[in-house]
Design a protein that fits this description.
homooctamer; alpha/beta; Rossmann fold; 5-stranded parallel β-sheet; globular; YtoQ family protein (chains A, B, C, D, E, F, G, H); YtoQ_family_protein (chains A, B, C, D, E, F, G, H)
Chain lengths: 146, 146, 146, 146, 146, 146, 146, 146
């Protein structure tokens, strides 16, 4: 049995590669999917496809079309969602994707540093599990296949 | 026809009263519901009911039980969700509630200042409408009943 | 038992008033809802609330926010949808609303002139009933309460 | 990961072949499905299977049985729907299929010429993205797999 | 708390009145709904509204439009469905409505004479309860309110 | 693309083999599933597994456990349901399975002789198509793959 | 806004009256529903309606028809489920009802003595909140209306 | 056609191996999944991943995160759930999983000794079939593939 795991969350560190490599080292039968990780490309995709927009807000609106399209198609394929909250930025997309996962009955693992426990307490309660490190998430993935 | 509107988002300003008063002045047939607006009470409700917890994290976990219970019961009653993002704090609850509303097919109006357009672009695209002021949200509510 | 009926379709003739008056004359316990019938207001609502937009396309996009918001909230309340196709215009909104009604398991009555039977054959097959006049729709409504 | 894409819309130009060829040239792992593209066959399938019908309307009704059967089975298999509006005809089937896709939570890409923006504004708002050319739709498909 | 009960099944005996009278005598807070009980009207409603049809089959098809419309609207309102199988006729409508009730998660009580136990065994297993008399069904309704 | 088709209905003629052979001859990529076709085994399976039952009614109840279990598992796998009504017996199971298919959004093809049109008019209206012969059903299956 | 609360769980103590009285004293706008609390009646209802059964197992099966019918109708009406685990008996019904509540997206409050924490840990994790006393449950109910 | 079967219930006997071996001997095309069968590991997984917890209750809460995560992912994959009730322990997890299976429309087979018939009567009524031995469950599985 193979599982598909959607990796939601910040795209400024290489945590996705870390998870993929560790899962591969453990030979976990998992296919990972996730958002566009090239931040500039993610911001510009709207204008790339639709052409120049009137201003920054419309440029964002145009980009969000294709980022949401991508996320919804891939998250629908997922058996599990792992959402990581990093140290900076608003990360409202991460909260949005994590909440959508819960609403669509996709089991959710939250990775967040202890410092974020207060701001994430309600979302954390909705997640199946909240951990602080990628290694703990890998342990949870391993447990599913034992 | 009466509608129930859930007012999600920050609880540090009195925007909810502003909406309620303006809707009342316009005699819109709307019942408003929302989260606990007393921040301390919202943080302490877990220990109030379950007693002292081992540490701040468990105190938060305890509180989230009852805050989520309240939110889910009331949001289920809502025909529409209005989520306001303020100027400060992480506001991940607001993003969580707004995203849950969309996932549960509750029409969503987002209120956010222009400065937040980039961080909210994907959530904004999922909302039925994004506005910048309470008055604009009131105009949208009025339009439904015209 | 009262029913709520959403009247989808063209807003250039007064067919909605005709249905409401005839239902009232028959004392059918029905509450009617529907889209904004003032065409200009429907086209301009986006700019009225959000301010001037860069061009006609963005003006339309802005208006569609609030027209869709209105339609989804009201159609969710409906026990039945009646969609009337008139003689002119593309009327893609009418087809969109009628199809959404079917997808959301809302019984659908289609009113269309015989000349449209070919272009509407697949949608007509999805409807519970297709009639050619408002009077026939009234007969169908009456039958539900007999 | 392979995706299945349903190509809804007009069957009078060869836009489907164009998309299929361009997707193949880019080696996108996509299986395309769609409606019967032979217009006469689509109109006659009812009488072919059920025999001659009393008149043109019943002939249409008979054909719609099998066209809807085909569309619903294939659209259920789709991860994404692309709907193209051409220059002529009422194209209510296209609006019906596009709206059904949205209602069934199938991500939707709309292809329409700028001239149609007004008539399609509400449907366009429900789509994940609206573009004007097949090439732009191909760019969107490519983005999903990057 | 009031309940709405849909009374599906044969329309050739007055079992519905019997249930209504006995429920009224017990002052059970129940609103009863059901199909058109005038058999001729049920058979002719299609031609009454749509005009004469080419033959008996098309006359039946026309009538089924409005009978299904009525049944679906009323059954959606029901908290419980009671389906009675009589002694004669095919009664495929009764089996259809009873099965639809189960599929739509409407609790179902089956009333059938013992002689039908074999032909109804699978449907009976899907029902919440199978009884042989109207009085037993009344006992079940009473039990809900005790 | 392969499809799974559930063949509901009477088990006293070999119509299933006829469909399977004709689909095979046309090389249609279809997997067929269906109920237990050995009538005695279907009636006795309850006592075979659970042992002798107190009387015929309990024997039927016991058998229905396993027949419903089988049907629900297999029908869930189906993309399409074909239900054939034969000339004799009550065939309430056939009506039950056909109605369940519709309720679970499984496209349905009804095969029934013309003589049954009146008794099946409402169920026929819910089906995607109603035909009179196995050959016509095969034509419909073929059309899906063209 | 009134809420309906289903009180699942043991019927050997008068905890339901305690909750009802305390909620009444606080004037909480709550309608309480629940299972048949007369244990003998609950065990005998099957034979009361269907007559004597062959043995104790069939007597239980008969009773379960009407107990499940009652529970499903009333739980569907509930906005919230409170399930109390007592000190004795298997209480599998309580676990069944609590789990069904979660699966049907009904918020759940578990009341259980500390001694049961281990046996209930997975169910407790699925509940919105787990408390040890009726008074704590009342506090939670009160919090919803503040 | 392969099926996936989730084996819920007690983990103190080797009934799962018995089922797997007998299914293998019969060459039934079934993939079996289930909970962590190492009781200590199941109890300790929370602290293994999250570190030492304040007390036994929090240790249980921590473990339940990962046990529920595992169960929900695997049960979602199942076409059928078999739940076995053993002779000892509260087994509320078994009742919880069995009830969740029913609520999620997963066909359910209950295995329980006769002595438990009274305590399990309502859950048994919701199951598709209740048997007393693993061999009877194997017969039921075999019947599906005949």
């Amino acid at each position: 049995m193979r599982l598909t795991v959607y990796l939601a969350g910040e795209i400024h560190t290489n945590w996705r590669n870390e998870i993929k490599e560790k899962a591969a080292a453990l030979e976990l039968p998992i296919d990972f999917v996730g958002p566009m990780e090239d931040h500039d490309r993610s911001d510009n995709i709207g204008e790339e496809i639709l052409g120049e927009q009137p201003n920054a807000i419309f440029k964002d609106a145009a980009a969000s079309n294709f980022n949401n399209l991508r996320t919804e198609i891939l998250m629908k394929k997922a058996d599990l969602v792992i959402a990581l909250f990093g140290e900076q930025y608003k990360q409202w997309n991460t909260a949005m994707d994590a909440s959508a996962a819960v609403a669509f009955d996709k089991p959710l693992i939250l990775i967040r540093q202890e410092a974020h426990h207060h701001a994430l307490k309600e979302l954390s309660r909705k997640a199946h599990a909240t951990v602080e490190t990628v290694d703990q998430a890998i342990q949870a993935l391993t447990y599913i296949f034992e």
